[in-house]
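Summarise this fold before class:
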Amino acid sequence: MARTALTPNKFAPNNALTDPTGTTIDATLVSNGVVINGVDPEHTILRVTNSSGASKAITVKAGTGTQSWMAGAGDETTTVPASGTAWLGPFTSARVQQKGTALYVDFASGTTGTITVFQLPKAWN
């Protein structure tokens, strides 16, 4: 099955961003994972809330292709505490960037909660 595409919430210099609600982590996301297309990993932050009663692992998959020369370090896995929140990133593109400037994120079985993608600006004015 295809991964579910998520769209980043973009910060702009000298501006505000209303707190977005995020995307619900359901059985489809747990089974298929998500893709964040067109990202700059060094400027990408993920907020993951875990509403299940147990700690759950969230995995940012190691990249593929020649641009991911650090992929040999493996996936980047973070444990989100039971009924807690974790902030992941920014990331090293040489480790996690997929072909076509995408990030892949997987969830442990039984994960529930939300995932929100934030994109920081590349340059400050």
Observations:
- Helices lie at 27-32, 93-96.
- The chain has a mean pLDDT of 94.
- The CA atoms of residues 3 and 31 lie 9 Å apart.
